[in-house]
């Protein structure tokens, strides 16, 4: 099976699992899944977030997802428990489709590590 085919199948399986768990079956998009990862990484799942906090949650998720690729490195948790990352290497310029594939691959790897999918 080609790498692209395997990624596509895993992504679809993951979207089904997360959509059934968090949106009553309506497919979650990439941003929604990134947001969920941010909430997971913060560890404060049962609370409401303001708009700026939601953006920060997505930033946390992106940093965490791209950390294994060498773009970010975890630094510390602040006094409120929010994780902070530093940039290790700037992301190369990517076209929209390339960004999407990179993020989907990183998300699939994140959930493979957690054994949500195989």
Q: How would you describe what is shown here?
A:
The protein has helices at 3-22, 30-42, 51-66, 96-113; strands at 72-77, 83-87. It is mainly alpha-helical. It has one domain. α1 (3-22) crosses α4 and α2 (30-42) packs across α3 (51-66). The longest helix is centred in the N-terminal third of the chain and has 20 residues, at 3-22. The chain is globular and about 45 Å long.
Mean pLDDT: 94
Indicate the overall shape.
globular
Stretches where pLDDT falls below 50 for ≥5 residues? Answer: none
Give me the strand/helix succession.
HHHEEH
Tell how many strands the DSSP assignment holds: 2
Q: How many structural domains does the protein architecture include?
A: 1
Question: How far apart are the first and last residues' alpha carbons, in Å?
Answer: 14 Å
Strand content: 5-15%
Q: What percent of residues adopt helix (DSSP H or I)? A: 55-70%
Taking strands numbered 1, 2, ... along the chain, how are they ordered across the largest sheet? 1-2
User: With helices defined by DSSP (H or I, 4 residues minimum), what is the helix count?
Assistant: 4
Sheet bearing the most strands, described?
2 strands, antiparallel
Briefly note the structural class of the backbone.
Answer: mainly alpha
* Gyration radius, in Å: 15 Å
